[in-house]
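queue> holo job accepted (zinc ion)
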Amino acid sequence: MATHDTLQRFTFDNCHVRGELVGLKQSLADMFQRQTYPEPVNGLLGELLVAAALLSATVKIEGILSLQVQTDGPVRLLVAETTHDGKLKGIARLDEDKDLSEEHLLGQKGQLIITIEPNQGRRYQGIVALEEGSITKSVEAYFRQSEQLDTHLWISCENGMAAGLFLQELPELGEIQETIEADDDAWNRLNQLAHTLRSDELLHLSNEDILYRLYHEEKVRVYEGQPLQFSCSCSKERLSVALTQIGYAECQDIIDEQKKIRADCQFCGQHYSFTQSDVNGLFPLESAKNGKGLH
Ligand SMILES: [Zn+2]
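queue> job finished
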C-alpha cells in the first residue's frame, strides 16, 4: 500500500502543485483494538483519518488539526484528530435506532467541521456542508470555498488499510522561483493522471511505485516521509476540564453516591477516576462552602 503509516509530501519542479500520500495500517489496527465498530464504519473512520493526515501537512502550525463529520444518518458523528508530529486518533458515534445496512451511512444532511488548534495562538474553525455524503468531496469544497485553492483527494479503505492521495494547485507566488517555464496545462494533466490510479493500486503499491506509475514523465521532488501513529494525549488533567464543565453539584452527587467519579477517555478507553479530594481541588470554593473541603 501506499507506504505504511507515513505522510509523504511531494512537489513538482515544473509547476505550482503540491502533493501528498498517506498510508495507514498499524495506526488503524492500534485504534480499532481499543474501539470496535461495524466494518463500514471502520472504513469511514479510516477515510476521515487519512483526510486529517493529508490536511495536517497543509497547515504550518504546531498543534492539533481535527475533522468532525456530523450527520443525520446512521453514523451520527465521526471525529479524526491529528497533531503536527504525526499522532492520530478518532472516534465514531452511531445512531442506535438506525440501520447500518442503509446505503447512506452519512445520511442526507450533514456538515464537516475543520478545527485547527495551535499550541500558541488562536483556534480556527471552518465549516462546509457535507457534499453528496462524501468526505473527500467535502474537503475539496472546503478548500475551494475557504482557501480558493483547487484541490483533489482520492482515498481508499479496505480490510484495515486506508490510503490517500492529495493534489493542490498553489498560487503562483512565493515558494517556487520564476525560472519555472509556463506549463499552463500541468494542473489538468496531473489530475487526469491521478484519476487513472485504481483504488487497489493506491492501497497496495508503495509511494515510490505510485509516483513512478503516475508521474514518471514529470519532475517530482519527494520529501522525507513523516511517521504516523495512533496516540492519545489524554490525561487526568484534561478530563478534569470536562468535570469542571459538568459543575460542582453534579460531581459531588456522584461522589456521595459512588465515592468516585469514573471517566474513560472516549478515544483510547483509558480509565480515570476522581475522588473527593480531586473534586475539592477542582472546586475549592464550592466544596469549602459545602463543608466537604480538606479535613
Ligand atoms: Zn485517551
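queue> The chain has two domains: 6-230, 236-289.
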